[in-house]
Amino acid sequence: MLVLNNHRLLILIVFIIVAVACREDIIEPDTFIGTVNEPVQINEPNSYTFAIHAQNISVNVTNNTFISSFTSRISISIADYTSGYVSISVTDIDNNSRFNYFGNGDESFFTEALTGYIPAYVGIRAVDFSGKLKIEVTKTF
Q: Which CATH class for the 34-139 domain?
């Protein structure tokens, strides 16, 4: 009987270890993944995403979108804003400015269609910006 009880105890311990080790945290929608001031970029064919949890950051970057459609959409959200500003621009393949956005406060969800041109580049300029910024540019059908 003692051997049988030790066997059950061993199985229970292994089960608990496996259950705890394999636990995955659930990430809520709109959760910003990554370290503070280190952006997460996802750049796939016909889809571009840039997200950052910023604290007093000043940057000026331009990223290729890899979108090849004349119909797309940009979506911008700013959460937990505390300071500074961010400006976002979209330029076409001929380097013509086609879209501009200025943010210095919370923006739950801004979206606009980008039609009649291919959005080749997204420019992001932040000056002493603190907040959670998310930009998405996607091909629409």
A: mainly beta
